[in-house]
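User: Can you recover a sequence for this backbone? Please restate the input before giving your answer.

Assistant: Of course. Working from this structure:
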């Protein structure tokens, strides 16, 4: 552990022996091909219960393919992939049905008396005053809050976030960070967030993975409490960017050989 930075290198993380709970997600040697191109190449991954992981990578690195696999959106045959049945996804686009009021969007697919559960979830994300609103009347931040409520009302063991804040302005994005952390602490799902934003990854995650050409090429475990990360954020940002090949924490370079495949 580097006491100055508050994070462990991948070698330290691997060789630090301590008991682990049974993982929520387990992949061994996972490979996904599109034609001759291996978009995911022999990937091993464990996600522990309640762990918050950020996945960084250039466009075309395989992030979307991995998320779709964990979400059950792509069929996986003959591979060592274990994911929980109880899982939910929040996308960059909130994907609300415009002909249903917000509470019905949140309760979509649930059985029984869904309104009380939907209302409770909406209040938890700060939308108690928008329960009966129509999706097209929501701001971008409100729509993403509704999407979070729809995911968490199902009490998933695994919550997948696919760049959910990329289209929001900076102030709204920071507020959403605080909300997501509050919800995560309350419900304790395992979380995997896919992001292009290095600063976002550092602010939210316990562990940051860098994916390149379908392989995890770097892993950083962040030990510092989330409110105390400013002192080493710049150093860790530079470390992660060195693996990504870029300088701007919000502009990651492209991987043209795989971009078309993802």
């Amino acid at each position: 552990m580097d006491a100055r930075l508050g994070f462990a290198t991948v070698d330290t993380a691997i060789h630090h022996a301590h008991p682990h709970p049974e993982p929520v997600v387990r992949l061994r040697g996972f490979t996904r091909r599109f034609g001759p191109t291996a978009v995911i190449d022999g990937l091993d991954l464990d996600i522990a219960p309640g762990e918050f992981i950020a996945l960084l990578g250039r466009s075309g690195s395989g992030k979307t393919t991995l998320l779709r696999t964990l979400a059950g959106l792509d069929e996986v045959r003959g591979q060592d992939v274990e994911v929980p049945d109880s899982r939910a996804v929040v996308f960059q686009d909130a994907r609300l049905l415009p002909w249903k009021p917000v509470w019905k969007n949140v309760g979509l697919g649930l059985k029984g008396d869904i309104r009380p559960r939907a209302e409770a979830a909406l209040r938890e994300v700060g939308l108690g005053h928008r329960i009966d609103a129509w999706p097209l009347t929501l701001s971008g931040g409100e729509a993403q809050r509704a999407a979070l409520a729809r995911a968490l009302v199902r009490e998933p063991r695994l919550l997948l976030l696919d760049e959910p804040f990329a289209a929001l302005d900076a102030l709204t994005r920071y507020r959403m960070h605080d909300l997501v952390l509050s919800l995560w602490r309350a419900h304790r799902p395992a979380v995997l967030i896919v992001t292009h934003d290095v600063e976002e990854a550092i602010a939210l995650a316990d562990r940051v993975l860098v994916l390149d050409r379908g392989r995890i090429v770097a892993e950083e475990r962040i030990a510092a409490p989330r409110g105390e990360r400013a002192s080493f954020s710049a150093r860790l940002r530079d470390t992660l960017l060195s693996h990504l090949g870029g300088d701007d924490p919000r502009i990651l370079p492209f991987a043209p050989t795989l971009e078309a495949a993802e």
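That completes the design. Strands lie at 7-8, 25-34, 37-47, 52-57, 80-82, 87-91, 158-162, 190-194, 207-212, 215-222.
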